[in-house]
Specification:
Globin-like; Methyltransferase, Methionine Synthase (B12-binding Domains), Chain A, domain 1; 17 helices
């Protein structure tokens, strides 16, 4: 019999559209001008936005960690503020969702949902609408990071890549190029988009240049030895971003690991073939947003089932999880059934080495 949180999360996912429609009717009745005339013309259809909010609630409830809902709603508060969405819209939507679910859910399920909504809403009132810059001219290689980002924003991608080439020629370690140039510039571009300082096209262009920069770095990464430990990396279903995974992969390779990268948006039902055909020592999965946590849950369960079938032990291959949700909630990896979680690339080789030692000691 499923737990209350599993049942509730499943019901929210299965009936999200219907609940969103009912919530929209409540909003029309209680805040008619807010929905009909106050939203900017570029805003998504309200029913679609409300359905996303219900899916986020489902993901938070599934692991019973309200801090995850707090975090994503804070992100939306910033985005909405800088896109001229009325400040009362997000709070009114949460109240309308609560009103709808009070009528539609069993009492135990509603109590769980209400707790998540209340905690998130209380935090939301105090959340800022601006984010500080991720760039600092006085930081190590901060000037280069700023020049790299400026070149991207001006559409001078080759000039941006020349900064990376120059850093390599000067002997700057790959880890330092990642940590002090590429990562701060990429995070700053994301912050600028969130605060509507640049269009999404500029952010996408910059991301493409960072991908090329990682390709340049890869040419200087030593080839793993034939007997190297193998880490399989992948973005779970729905996660379309793999820059972080590629950075992690390079760090592991610099430490002597071989990396078998399956890319982003990997369906949980398909990577079992790779476990059958390839010697894998550690599996690393990423989820960049709260909405991807359900995909992680399914992928971990699939790995455990395959390991039980192939090796007679569901824990035969350790799993490492990464991405923003795992920095927000330190025990999330354990809730999802994995051995380790990280939000900082600097941790990855230490965690991988520890997992390898754990496997050796239990063998």
């Amino acid at each position: 019999m499923p737990s209350t949180r599993d049942f509730t999360a499943g019901l929210l996912r299965a009936s999200g559209r219907a609940f969103a429609s009912a919530t929209l009717n409540t909003l029309h009745g209680s805040w008619p001008t807010l929905i009909d005339t106050a939203l900017p013309s570029t805003f998504a259809r309200p029913i679609d936005d409300i359905e996303v909010r219900i899916m986020q609630l489902a993901a938070s409830v599934a692991v019973d960690r309200p801090v995850l809902l707090e975090d994503i709603l804070t992100w939306y508060k910033v985005a909405f503020h800088h896109r001229e969405v009325p400040p009362e819209y997000l709070g009114a939507t949460l109240k309308a969702i609560e009103s709808t679910l009070r009528k539609e859910l069993p009492s135990e399920s509603f109590e769980l949902v209400q707790r998540h909504l209340a905690i998130a809403a209380a935090h939301l009132d105090q959340a800022p609408v601006d984010q500080p810059s991720h760039l600092d001219r006085t930081a190590p290689h901060g000037e280069t990071a700023m020049r790299f980002l400026l070149a991207n924003l001006e559409g001078r991608g080759e000039d941006a890549l020349d900064f990376v080439r120059g850093a390599l020629r000067d002997g700057l370690p790959i880890a330092d190029i990642q940590d002090h140039i590429l990562s701060p510039a990429q995070r700053e571009a994301g912050r600028m988009w969130l605060m509507a300082e640049i269009p999404i096209a500029d952010e996408h262009y910059g991301t493409a240049i960072v991908e090329r920069a990682l390709g340049l770095l890869q040419e200087s990464v030593p080839r793993p030895k034939p007997d190297a430990r193998v880490v399989m990396t992948m973005g779970v279903a729905g996660n379309m971003h793999d820059l972080g995974l590629r950075v992690i992969g390079q760090r592991l390779q610099l430490d002597g690991y071989a990396v078998h990268h399956l890319g982003p948006n990997m369906p949980a039902t398909d990577f079992a073939w790779s476990l059958q055909d390839l010697k894998v020592d550690i599996i690393a999965m990423s989820a960049s947003m709260l909405m991807h946590v359900h995909g992680v849950m399914e992928a971990v369960a699939q790995v455990r089932a395959v390991c039980a079938e192939l090796y007679g032990d569901p824990l035969a291959r350790p799993i490492m999880l990464g991405g923003r949700p795992f920095g927000i909630c330190e025990d999330l990896h354990a809730v999802l059934g994995a051995q380790a979680g990280l939000d900082d690339v600097k941790q990855v080789t230490g965690i991988a080495n520890k997992l390898i030692q754990t496997v050796r000691s239990s063998a």
